[in-house]
């Protein structure tokens, strides 16, 4: 199996809130794929697409799947790369300002990593990290 594309479909409760949150963070809307049932954004240099569907629409189109309550459990964790520790810190401030929740404050972890974890207003979780090397 070798698909030509891959994208993500996530369930949300409020399209306007989702659109505002990701627009406030600077993500580029995928305009042709926005409707009264979903909003869509490009992520990263390769324009990975994430569609945010109203939960009832996604469940009715993907029967018999039922989507979890992302305020209680995590379906997936996306990772976003930061170019520096300062950029990670700045992004944490932007996430809070846009209405997201900082799950884990920016900090060093492992031997060469710095970052934080946040969730959007619907509870979808993202890990932001910067990988660095310190030569002594």
Describe it.
With 136 residues, this protein is α/β, with parallel strands linked by helices. The chain folds into two domains: 1-67, 2,3-Dihydroxybiphenyl 1,2-Dioxygenase, domain 1, CATH 3.10.180.10; 74-136, 2,3-Dihydroxybiphenyl 1,2-Dioxygenase, domain 1. Helices cover 23% and strands 36% of the residues. The strands form two sheets. A four-stranded mixed β-sheet has the order 1-4-3-2. It has a four-stranded mixed β-sheet with strand order 5-8-7-6. The longest helix has 14 residues, at 85-98. The protein is globular, with a radius of gyration of 16 Å. The protein starts with 6 loop residues before the first strand and ends in a 5-residue tail after the last strand.
**Number of DSSP strand runs:** 8
Number of domains as seen in the coordinates: 2
- Average pLDDT across residues? 91
Helix and strand string, N-terminal first?
A: EHEEEHEHEEE
Report the CATH architecture of the largest domain: Roll
Stretches with pLDDT under 50, minimum 5 residues: none
The CATH superfamily name of the largest domain is: 2,3-Dihydroxybiphenyl 1,2-Dioxygenase, domain 1
DSSP helix fraction? 10-25%
- Rg over CA atoms: 16 Å
Structural class: alpha/beta
Largest sheet: 4 strands, mixed
CATH domain fold name of the largest domain = 2,3-Dihydroxybiphenyl 1,2-Dioxygenase, domain 1
Give the spatial strand order of the biggest sheet: 1-4-3-2
* Residue share in β-strands: 35-45%
Shape: globular
Q: What is the CATH class designation of the largest domain? A: Alpha Beta
């Amino acid at each position: 199996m070798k698909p030509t594309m891959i994208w993500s479909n996530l369930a949300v409760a409020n399209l306007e809130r989702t659109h505002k949150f990701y627009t406030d963070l600077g993500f580029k809307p995928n305009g042709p794929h926005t409707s009264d049932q979903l909003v869509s954004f490009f992520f990263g240099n390769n324009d990975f697409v994430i569609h945010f569907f109203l939960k009832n629409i996604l469940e009715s189109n993907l029967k018999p799947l039922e989507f979890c309550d992302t305020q209680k459990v995590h379906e997936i964790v996306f990772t976003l790369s930061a170019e520096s520790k300062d950029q990670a810190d700045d992004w944490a401030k932007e996430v809070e300002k846009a209405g997201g929740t900082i799950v884990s404050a920016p900090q060093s972890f492992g031997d060469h990593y710095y970052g934080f974890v946040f969730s959007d207003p619907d509870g979808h979780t993202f890990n932001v990290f910067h990988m660095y090397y310190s030569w002594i």
